[in-house]
Amino acid sequence: MSTDAVGGVWTYASDLRAELATVGVEVVLATLGPQSPPGPDGLWLDCRLEWQDDPWDDVQRSGDWLRELARAAQADVLHLNGYAHAAQDWPVPVLVTAHSCVLSWHEAVHGAPAGAQWERYRDAVGAGLRRADVLVSPTAAMRVALRRHYGLTQPCRVIPNGVSPHPAAPQRREPLVLGAGRLWDEAKGLQTLDAAAQGLPWRVEVAGAAGGREARHARLLGQIERTVLRTRMGRAAIFAHPARYEPFGLVVLEAALAGCPLVLGDIASLREQWDGAALFVAPGDSAALHAALQRLIDDAPLRDELAAAAHGRARERGVRGTAMGYIALYERLRTRRRVAA
Q: Please, are residues 143 and 159 in contact by the beta-carbon 8 Å criterion?
């Protein structure tokens, strides 16, 4: 299984691998990219990823590395959490999980199609998607985006992501609004949260890499370990994620599992998962976000109602269910390989 160590893909891959191991599925986790994995377990190749500047020599090199790992492990299935590698020739069936893509990100964040500089990326991703034996997306919204941007016609199965159980019960809530994500990534909407924090009676904190950006009204916690973030979620009275683009949103699932009431960006993927269990605001509208946060601050029963609804839904999205969905696909691909042999 390929992964990178940036954001939710690492959380998804490491949790899924651990869960698969409990039912006897052995996964060789291969991390690609300039950032090393946060844990000592797993293999890592320092290389540029397909969405970075001029990555194509490194894409070929990392594909060769993955091929050697698959050969050495005598793998039955190659599970890619990227696209371009799937277009290469593989001796085993290939499953691709589509977590996000530049074209859908660019459209959501900038309100316009990606420019000509992304044509090679578009071609490489499209070729990989079309060559995959099985496609998976974590939401129906992401599946729609793939079909629209890359002209896909083959089936794409939806398997929602899951996370491991929360390590501790929610603690006593503090008068705190918490956000989490990369402040420099406009997709996460955290600069909108910073603007909305002005004048709120509760403090607002944002966990995640700032990338040189500064906040005017929120307190920046910087990059913190997942266990620390989960503990902070267990104490926060509100979790805000006013995203412009979020194909799934593992961080929202983590916060819901920790018992936080949610205030989310009103986009298709988040509506698909949390409609009826969160407040929604238009992306980029700091006044509307401020009003929604103030409403929850003033209304403890509503906070309790939304927290219970989100927590109940999150409990249905455990990593065990995600693993079972993938195991069914792995077995189908193994059977297909045996029949072909």
A: no
